[in-house]
Automatic annotation (TrEMBL):
Lineage of the species this protein comes from: Bacteria, Pseudomonadati, Bacteroidota, Sphingobacteriia, Sphingobacteriales
Pfam families registered for this protein in UniProt: FecR, FecR_C
UniProt name for this protein: FecR protein domain-containing protein
Signal peptide: none
Organism expressing this protein natively: Pelobium manganitolerans
Gene3D superfamilies: 2.60.120.1440, 3.55.50.30
């Protein structure tokens, strides 16, 4: 028996945990002879372990030991009595069969891993940041959820499914477009930062930096959005582009509000939405008072103090609203 054939048998017995003490010493001596021998054994052991893990993950009812015995039986079967196989050919067949079994198991593991889905849901009351394997970052608003295929960084297209609202900072990679599927829409970028809001049936995308393609899923029409532009998709299938004056829609992420020469009625409308409060302006003359200011992580009481001082008004708390008077 040639040495190579002998060590293939020792490796197969080692993987099956059927080595005697003498065979163990012999295999260890062979591993110590050359670095490539140890490397081969490690690779075969790794593939074998992954094949076992793959079997457990899929929860199959396949009896691997029985299947291997059938392979052995076929290899050693003397189905044609007049035909004599030389030992060299027989052990080479064992080695080839063992390699084939492990290779197929490895392919199965690879296929399974590529089709695994990673899901992250933000069930907290505050926003959460998620770092993707390709270096991109996602900030999830409360209640938002994203999912993507495992091995995202190695795929030809980096695709993410989103429900809810999230802010993206995408790692630039011209060879691997980044695509977000949300509420029947598809947003595609190469590297940029933008906000996607799919909390309702109306989906919006607002671009902070870079360039974004925004379209209906499987639709031909698309919008190209630049910084300062917002695309909106409605349930009837229409797409519309508009400009935004400020980034107050990102309050959930950065806790900032900015107003520049904005009428009081518009300021209070945004504050009502963000802080879940209600304002009543008693005089129509007060509605168009202009305000230029900014807030950072401010409480509703701090905001009211600034409004009163800046506009020379009085804001009083009633049972279910804040009343704005002169």
């Amino acid at each position: 028996m040639a040495p190579d054939d002998k060590y293939w048998i020792l490796i197969s017995n080692y993987l099956a945990n059927e080595l005697s003490d003498t065979e163990t010493d012999e295999l260890l001596s062979w591993v110590a002879e050359a670095p490539e021998n140890g490397q081969l054994l490690r690779e075969m052991q790794s593939a074998w372990e992954k094949s076992n893990e793959y079997q457990k993950t899929l929860k199959t009812d396949v009896d691997v030991d029985a299947a291997w015995k059938k392979v052995e039986a076929r290899l050693f079967a003397d189905s044609h009595p007049k035909t004599q196989f030389k030992p060299m050919r027989r052990w080479t067949s064992i080695a080839a069969s063992l390699f084939l079994i492990i290779s197929l198991a490895w392919l199965g593991v690879s296929y399974y891993q590529k089709h695994q889905t990673v899901t992250f849901a933000n069930n907290l009351e505050t926003q959460q940041q998620l770092l993707l394997p390709d270096g991109s970052s996602i900030w999830l608003n409360k209640g938002a959820k994203v999912s993507y295929k495992k091995g995202l960084e190695n795929l030809s297209q980096r695709e993410v499914e989103l429900s809810g609202e999230a802010f993206f900072e995408v790692q630039h990679n011209p060879q691997k477009p980044f695509i977000i599927h949300a509420g029947g829409t598809k947003t595609q970028v190469l590297g940029t930062s933008f906000n996607v809001d799919a909390t309702t049936k109306k989906v919006s995308v607002a671009v902070i930096s870079g360039k974004v393609s925004f379209a209906k899923e499987n639709g031909k029409a698309q919008l190209f959005l630049l910084p300062g532009e917002k695309g909106t998709y409605t349930p009837n299938g229409s797409l519309a582009k508009s400009a935004f004056k400020n980034t107050n829609f990102l309050f959930w992420k950065n806790r900032q509000l900015n107003f520049e020469n904005e009428p009081l009625k518009n300021v209070l409308a945004e504050i009502e939405t963000i802080y879940s409060v209600r304002f009543v302006i008693k005089s129509s003359k007060l509605q168009n008072l202009k305000l230029t200011t900014s807030f950072k992580s401010a409480s509703i009481h701090q905001i009211i103090d600034v409004l009163e001082a800046s506009l020379d008004v009085k804001i009083e708390k009633s049972d279910n609203a804040y009343i704005v008077v002169k």
